Amino acid sequence: MAGSPDWALQGIARFLAWMHEEHGVPLSGPKTWPAYPTSYGNGGGQRLTGARWTDFEGVCGHMHVPENVHGDPGAIDFARIIKYAKADLDVGDDTPETTTPAKPKVPAFPGRKYFVAGASNAYVLQLGKQLVKRGFGDHYKVGPSRTWGEADRLNVRDFQKSRKELRGDADGNPGPLTWRLLFS
Question: Closest by alpha carbon to 42, among 25, 58, 65?
């Protein structure tokens, strides 16, 4: 995909931005994206080891998957795609080439799976602390915790009701827009 038109790269970037917001997929990936046929097998040294694959979080191509011989997508301009995805999410670009001041960063929405009944994780606590900071902690008896519960849902609902763009969907379940507005 070397030399791919901007409209194609921007389309891929919109999909990666959606994956990032909806499922918490990091906007990062391997640095090496050799052209085909070099990328076939491990001709470009791009294939991840089993251990690196186990620890990997982000976006990759078939060419990076261990024990795979595929060479796709080839020489894609991955850095430009990530730059477009970050612009689409309005989170700024922290690459060294950036010459304009970075926009305030909003933590990435980790995904809806972290905010279900009984879920216990750092994201619930992070959300709860931000709700309190923004004045939406009335339903906590003691304060936010790591475990998602009814008080969290009611506080999120109160925040959603306070925002015109969220009122129609004020169900108390955080999604990407609720998260972005709460942390911005």
Answer: 65
Average pLDDT of every residue of the chain: 87
Q: Taking Cα atoms as reference points, which of 77, 108, 76, 78 lies closest to residue 92?
A: 108
Orientation angle between helical segments 176-183 and 122-133, nearest 10 degrees: 50
**Number of helical H runs and strand E runs in the chain:** 6, 0
Rounded to a whole number, what is the distance in angstroms from the first to the last CA of the chain? 36
Amino acid at 25: V
Task: Summarize pLDDT for 88-102 with one digit per residue, the tens.
Answer: 776 655 544 433 444
CA atoms within 13 A on the CB side of 128: 24
- DSSP secondary structure string, 40-94? STTTTS-PPPHHHHHH--S---GGGSTT-----S-S--HHHHHHHHHHHHT----
Q: What angle separates helix 176-183 from helix 150-162, to the nearest 10 degrees?
A: 70
77 contacts 1 by C-beta, under 8 angstroms = yes
